[in-house]
C-alpha cells in the first residue's frame, strides 16, 4: 500500500480535525445529557451551539439555526490562516455556505469558522483559533 501525504498541486492541506459537531433539536436537553450524563467537560456556549472538550478534539452541539444540517455530523478541520484558505478554495470553485466569521471570543484566542459543501453536499467546517498579537 502506498501513502502520499499531500497532493503536490494543492496549496491547502487539511490534516487535523479540530472539532466534530452534531445537530440536535433541543439544545438545553442535549447539553444536560452530554455534560451531566456523559460527563463531558463543558467549554462554552455560543448562542445556538455549545462546546465540550473530548481529549484533543472539541465536540459541539448545534441546532439547525446554527447552520448545521438536521441529523448531520460536521467535521471541522483546523487551519492556521482561515482567510487565506477561504480565498484559495473559493478560487478553486468551492462555494462557501458561510464565509469566515467570528463565533466566540475566548480568554486566549478568538474562534473563527467557515463552512462549505463537499461534492455530496456534506457540510465541511474550517476552524481557526486566532491568538491576539503579542504585545
Give descriptors for this structure:
135 residues, alpha+beta, 2,3-Dihydroxybiphenyl 1,2-Dioxygenase, domain 1, eight-stranded mixed beta sheet, 2 helices, 8 strands, 16% helix
How would you characterize this protein structure?
The chain has 135 residues and is of the alpha+beta class. It has a single domain (17-130), classed as Roll (2,3-Dihydroxybiphenyl 1,2-Dioxygenase, domain 1), CATH 3.10.180.10. Helix content is 16%, strand content 41%. The protein has helices at residues 27-37, 82-91; strands at 17-23, 41-45, 49-54, 57-62, 73-78, 96-105, 110-117, 123-130. It has an eight-stranded mixed sheet. A hairpin with a 3-residue loop joins β2 and β3. The longest helix is centred in the first third of the chain and has 11 residues, at 27-37. The chain is globular and about 45 Å long. The protein starts with 16 loop residues before the first strand and ends in a 5-residue tail after the last strand. The mean pLDDT is 84.
Amino acid at each position: 500500500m502506498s501513502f502520499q501525504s499531500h497532493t503536490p498541486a494543492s496549496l491547502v492541506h487539511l490534516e487535523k480535525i479540530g472539532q466534530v459537531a452534531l445537530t440536535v433539536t433541543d439544545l438545553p436537553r442535549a447539553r444536560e445529557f452530554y455534560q451531566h450524563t456523559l460527563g463531558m467537560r463543558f467549554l462554552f456556549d455560543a448562542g445556538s451551539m455549545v462546546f465540550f472538550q473530548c481529549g484533543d478534539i472539541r465536540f459541539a452541539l448545534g441546532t439547525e439555526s446554527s447552520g448545521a444540517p438536521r441529523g448531520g455530523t460536521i467535521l471541522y478541520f483546523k487551519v492556521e490562516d482561515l482567510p487565506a484558505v477561504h480565498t484559495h478554495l473559493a478560487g478553486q470553485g468551492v462555494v462557501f455556505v458561510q464565509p469566515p466569521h467570528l463565533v466566540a471570543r475566548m480568554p486566549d484566542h478568538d474562534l473563527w469558522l467557515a463552512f462549505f459543501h463537499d461534492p455530496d453536499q456534506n457540510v465541511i467546517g474550517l476552524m481557526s483559533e486566532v491568538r491576539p498579537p503579542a504585545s
